[in-house]
Amino acid sequence: MKREAILLDHPLLNRKRVFSTTEAKQVLGWSETDLHQVLFRLVRKGKLMRIKRGLFCFVPPGTGKIKGGYPQNWFLIVKALVAGKSYFISHYSAMHLHGMTTGAIQTIFISVSEQRRLPKALRIPIRLITVPKKRFWGLEEKWVTNEEKVSVSNLERTILDILDRPSLSGGISEIARGLWLVKKEINFSRLVEYAKCFDSLAALKRLGFLSEKFDLVQKKSIDDIHECIKRSPSYAFLDPLSEKEGKYVDRWRLRINVDMDNIQKNVMT
């Protein structure tokens, strides 16, 4: 029992939240047998969660199961799982970190440069999105605890990613509201520069339409975005998840297949 308390109260391990057996052995100075016995008992009691072989996470008091609402640990678990590999928190999870949504996190979305297998026993919902290495730009480090940072797409890059794949980002209504919430924080000169090299015209069409609809940016920035798509002959749907219908907006080469009045009400509330 004393050893259990020592491990649970150890300041370094507590600050990390997620730790390996190698790290624990180094800081505690215990034999491998003693350490594994303590870890086994703490997992059984629900004080620790075994993520995979040799990797553990603290379960905060009162939460019962880690899936019960402690997303900071989720981000650190993701970081530990991809240690040494290229990754960044993206889409709806990045929206959460940038204050674009107040909704609870149900899944951690993480973009990776190569396909990976997650541990079968992993008890938190993680969605891996494989993206080409050439798309690893527009990233930053963001604090998720007082001690730990994770890699995340910056605000402007996040905006392009979520408009490219609304299905991973709560849908168009949630995206529109998110843009409204952070409109004063967006660096639009950076966003326009990013738009010029982003390889999804559908995302740029949605960005231009929503920016104009909700008066998010100055006319010059909207015109710059329009310049990127004006030669596109095809039309994209504003919401790729909704019915394939709706009126055509020639300026942005979009079909508006959602009720914009309802979206506007959602944005303003």
Question: Any overview of this molecule?
Answer:
- The strands form 4 sheets. The protein has a 3-stranded antiparallel β-sheet with strand order 1-3-2. It has a 3-stranded mixed β-sheet with strand order 4-5-6.
- With 269 residues, it is α+β, with helices and mostly antiparallel strands.
- Helix 6 runs antiparallel to helix 7.
- A hairpin with a 4-residue loop joins strand 10 (247-249) and strand 11 (254-256).
- It is built from 12 helices and 11 strands.
- The chain has a domain at 2-59: Winged helix-like DNA-binding domain superfamily/Winged helix DNA-binding domain (Arc Repressor Mutant, subunit A).
How do the strands of the widest beta sheet line up side by side? Answer: 1-3-2
Query: How much strand?
Result: 15-25%
Give the SSE string: HHEHHEEHEHEEEEHHHHHEEEH
Number of helices in the DSSP assignment = 12
Write down the Rg: 22 Å
Structural class by helix and strand composition:
alpha+beta
Classify the helix fraction into a percent range.
Answer: 40-55%
Count of DSSP strands? 11
Principal-axis shape: elongated
Low-confidence stretches: none
